[in-house]
Design brief:
single chain; mainly alpha; 9 helices; globular
Length: about 270
């Protein structure tokens, strides 16, 4: 299953990003007044993001379990909240953004701030859990001397994982950003929105299913999707192949490193 997820998550993200960008091109970018159309349709793009986020909170988190809301009711609540924020977002955009030569890009520049937060939310829902899951089990084992069917995760461990991800991004994240953002295909705000939406949606769906995936893998799939939407010539496949090789190598490399560290500790202790 884990090997399949390495392929499924970027492919699923690729498809979503491809379709989303094609939709933006057909409904906005191919028209004469792209700015006006982007403003007019902004409630849809803002709303669909809020819809998925709210639905994930109602269906996945302890909040949803405590409220005991069924799927039909959750869908209705998510739609109402998404509709409200979509309209509110359009009002704010129309009030504070004036028409410019960038057209639709000027609108999606602001919307992408929200979808970038969406990606951060999805990463916390999955990537932090990937790292903290084993640590929570070890902490529970040390504290109680046994392992249960379900292991509670203390808030301070989640905070520890979040700080760790933030530090990692601060120390070396710029190198990954440079590769994903510049070397695969040319990105702008409409393409970036499509990538953010696709990657975050893929990761949140995987989180709901309890499947550990990589936000970075999903983001690369999304970037590839918007690149393919513009044609094969728009994608740097040399970088894609290089990234995929590294993805494959990380699994045995991590396994070998873990074995070495375990054997050293076993010898010492």
């Amino acid at each position: 299953m884990q090997r399949e997820l390495l392929v499924i998550s970027p492919v699923f993200s690729l498809i979503i990003a491809y379709l989303m960008f094609k939709l933006i091109v057909k409904t906005i970018l191919s028209k004469v007044d792209s700015f006006a159309l982007a403003l007019k349709l902004s409630p849809f793009f803002i709303g669909i993001t809020f819809f998925i986020v709210v639905l994930s909170f109602l269906c996945k988190t302890p909040l949803g379990k405590n409220l005991a809301i069924g799927t039909p009711a959750a869908l209705v609540i998510a739609f109402i909240i998404a509709f409200f924020f979509g309209i509110a977002g359009r009002m704010l955009l129309s009030r504070f953004i004036k028409k410019s030569e960038n057209g639709a890009e000027e609108i999606f520049k602001r919307i992408q701030i929200g979808t970038s937060c969406y990606v951060a939310l999805a990463q916390g829902a999955n990537d932090v859990a990937n790292a903290i899951g084993p640590l929570a089990l070890i902490y529970f084992l040390v504290k109680t001397g046994s392992v249960g069917d379900k292991v509670p995760v203390p808030v301070f461990l989640l905070l520890f994982g979040g700080i760790g991800i933030a530090c990692g991004i601060g120390m070396a994240g710029h190198r990954v950003m440079d590769t994903v953002g510049k070397k695969i295909t040319t990105l702008n705000n409409t393409r970036g929105f499509s990538v953010d939406f696709a990657a975050a949606t893929t990761v949140l769906i995987a989180s709901k299913m309890g499947l550990p995936v990589s936000t970075t893998h999903a983001a690369v799939g999304g970037v590839l999707g918007v690149g393919l939407a513009r044609g094969l010539e728009a994608v740097n496949f040399r970088i894609i192949i290089k990234i995929m090789i590294y993805w494959i190598l990380t699994v045995p490399a991590a396994a070998i490193t873990s074995i070495i560290i375990f054997k050293i500790l076993q010898f010492i202790l």
